[in-house]
Structures are given as structure tokens and as C-alpha cells.
Design brief:
Layout lengths: L2 E8 L3 H8 L9 H5 L2 H10 L3 E6 L14 E4 L3 E2 L14 E2 L2 H13 L5 E3 L6 H11 L8 E7 L9 H16 L6 E7 L16 H13 L1 H4 L4 H8 L7 H8 L5 E9 L7 E8 L2
Parallel strand pairs: 1-8, 2-7, 2-8, 3-6
Antiparallel strand pairs: 1-10, 3-7, 4-5, 9-10
Helix pairs in contact: 1-5, 4-6, 6-10
Length: 280
Amino acid sequence: MARITAGVATSHVPAIGAAIDNGRAGDPYWRPVFSGYEFSKQWLAAAKPDVVLLVYNDHATAFSLDIVPTFAIGCAPDFPPADEGWGPRPVPRVEGHPELAAHVTQSVIQQDFDLTIINKMDVDHGLTVPLSLMCGQPERWPVRVIPLAVNVVLYPPPSGRRCYELGKAIRRAVESFDDDLDVQIWGTGGMSHQLQGPRAGLINQEWDNRWLDRLIDDPETVSRIPHIEYVREAGSEGIELVMWLVMRGALDPRVRVTHRFYHVPASNTAVGHLILENDG
């Protein structure tokens, strides 16, 4: 059967993609950010997963604010990089896995989670920046990807508890797929940051690191953190962290921390990164 072997969490700051695309990764400002992913690239190359379920949020690119699904899954054979106003990123098209995506969709919907099925979709920096951080700049991405978009842009976003339980449902779905696949699940977005208003530029390093500790060791409690705490402590965009709970819910209750990295700032954002592996 298919199995989820590991989870990855990472920020998806758009300026990180711009730094990579414009050859600025070695600049003094950006070098400390990218150094935190050197181990991760080697780890992923050695792990060689067949499929990544990549949890991210669309930034009004594939979905206008006229229609915003709470949860949407990409079931297409491939996904081109989106034009976010300055042309598509110079990265490969994302190759999907329609068979596993369809199976996950059916299974999760029958577990009472409503997923919007997307058969044609461009993917923005929320999805492509994590791939660049973990894979570098290949001519072809080394893994097939199933996009799972979560609404954390338009109020109301799903609760952390709902995202955590969705992760559990996804795990059950993957484990009921007949093919022998090594699957990883990645949660992206965050950490603390606010891009507008009087608190623009907010970063809360103490809260971020305490949240990481609890995500690793006590995800049940973290899943119950209310939206208002994310907004108060991590800024208006800190709510993106609920997407990490989808990843954590799909893993064992106790996990092995293979890599942990935290850095501020990266374009007014706190960058967090975890690699968690199931002991089994």
C-alpha cells in the first residue's frame, strides 16, 4: 500500500523565489536563509519520495475572491507556474498524480470533508517556492506533486482543528491506495508576519519557536489554538500556520525531528522549516 513517510513544513515567502530566480541566493542578506535548506535538499534527494501532497494557499491567482474554496485538491496531470503579475517563475511545470489525487478526493469526501476538485489550475509561489527550496533549480521537479489549497486569505479560514483532522483523513486515504508509493506531505506558509496596517513588519520569534515545540510534541493542543491568537501573536498572515497542521495530522503522534531551522527576517517574514519523519 501507499504510505506517508515524512512531513515537511516551510515558509513560502515570494521574495525567496525572486532571490533564486535572479541569482541572489548567495547575497549576504539571503545566504543565511538558504543555508538552512542545504541539508533538506540532500535529505530529499536521498529519500526519493514518489509523491508529495503539498498544502499551500493560493494568493488570488488560481481563485479570484469571487470564489474561494476552503479546501481544494489538484487532480490534473500537470500544473503550470502562475503569472503573478511579473510573468511566471522560470521553474518546471509541476507534474501531478491524478490517480492518487482522485483516490484521496473520494476517500476524504466520504470521511465528510468537502474538497473542491480542480482539474485545471496554475500554481503560484505558495507551491513553487517550497519546491525550489527543497529541490534547487532542476530542469524537471524530481517528484510528482498533488496540490492541496487551503483558504487562509478570505475570512473565515478553517480552524486549526479542522486542518489537523483533515491530515488524519488524508493519511487514511493514502494508506488505502493499492499502489506501493512513498508519499510525503508538506505544509507551507507562515511563520509570524503581517504585511499591512499599523503592525506591518510584526515578527514574534518567541511565540514562533514555542509553537514549533508544541507542534512537534503536542499537536492536539496546538490544533485547538483559536484564530484570534494567531492574529494577535503572529500577525494577520500568521494564520497560514494552520496549514502546517494538515501535515502534522497526517503523521504519527510521535515523530522524529530530522531537521529544524528558523531565521528572521526574510522580507519582513519569519522563516520556519521542519522535517519530521515517522518512526515506522
